[in-house]
């Protein structure tokens, strides 16, 4: 058992050394090294996420692609004195947590309402008041947060459609929704902006 652990640690050390060297070469403009680095990281992340999301192969592949995109977009944040695989694992963990939260939220949408949870507007006035309150809260948000919420959450457009409509990237649309909803929740709790 101890021998196997040393072997896997050595293997991880070799992977770290090789992938880190390719990544650093890529940061200096070596496109071939950067491509090789991303291919090796994709294999590594596929195994890492596959162990944690067993039974969800489609989600694993989607997360690998999201991780690689996030690493590419945030490559300037990598601290060269730190292990590259630790940085990649941190990104993968955040992406995995986002996926699990989204799955949990989608499942909650399909749960039947209990008698105590019936949501009714007893009159058109209450519905109108609620709509006015939501619109008022949304107006307090900057466009980069408000527009993605309006288009995706209220109008039902996809993230891709919203990105095309607003000129934002798909990632920016997702971030805008997340941050906007977080800001709205804080305002409703009475937290300071």
From TrEMBL:
InterPro entries: RNA_pol_sigma-70-like (IPR039425), RNA_pol_sigma-70_dom (IPR014284), RNA_pol_sigma70_r2 (IPR007627), RNA_pol_sigma70_r4_t2 (IPR013249), RNA_pol_sigma_r2 (IPR013325), RNA_pol_sigma_r3/r4-like (IPR013324), WH-like_DNA-bd_sf (IPR036388). Residues 35-104 form the RNA polymerase sigma-70 region domain. SUPFAM superfamilies: Sigma2 domain of RNA polymerase sigma factors (SSF88946), Sigma3 and sigma4 domains of RNA polymerase sigma factors (SSF88659). Residues 132-184 form the RNA polymerase sigma factor 70 region 4 type domain. One of its GO terms (biological process) is DNA-templated transcription initiation. Keywords: DNA-binding, Sigma factor, Transcription, Transcription regulation. Belongs to the sigma-70 factor family. ECF subfamily. This is Sigma-70 family RNA polymerase sigma factor.
């Amino acid at each position: 058992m101890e021998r196997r652990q040393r072997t896997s640690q050595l293997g991880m050390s070799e992977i770290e050394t090789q992938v880190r060297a390719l990544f650093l070469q890529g940061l200096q403009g070596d496109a071939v090294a950067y491509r090789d680095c991303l291919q090796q990281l994709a294999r590594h992340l596929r195994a890492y996420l596959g162990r944690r999301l067993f039974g969800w192969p489609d989600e694993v592949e989607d997360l690998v692609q999201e991780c690689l995109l996030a690493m590419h977009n945030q490559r300037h944040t990598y601290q060269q004195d730190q292990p590259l695989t630790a940085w990649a694992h941190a990104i993968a963990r955040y992406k995995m947590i986002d996926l699990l939260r989204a799955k949990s939220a989608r499942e909650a949408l399909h749960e039947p309402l209990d008698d105590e949870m019936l949501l009714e507007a007893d009159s058109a006035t209450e519905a109108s008041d609620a709509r006015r309150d939501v619109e008022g809260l949304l107006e307090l948000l900057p466009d980069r947060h408000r527009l993605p919420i309006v288009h995706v959450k209220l109008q039902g457009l996809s993230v891709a459609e919203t990105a095309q409509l607003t000129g934002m990237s798909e990632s920016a649309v997702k971030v805008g929704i997340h941050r906007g909803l977080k800001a709205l929740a804080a305002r409703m709790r009475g937290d300071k902006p």
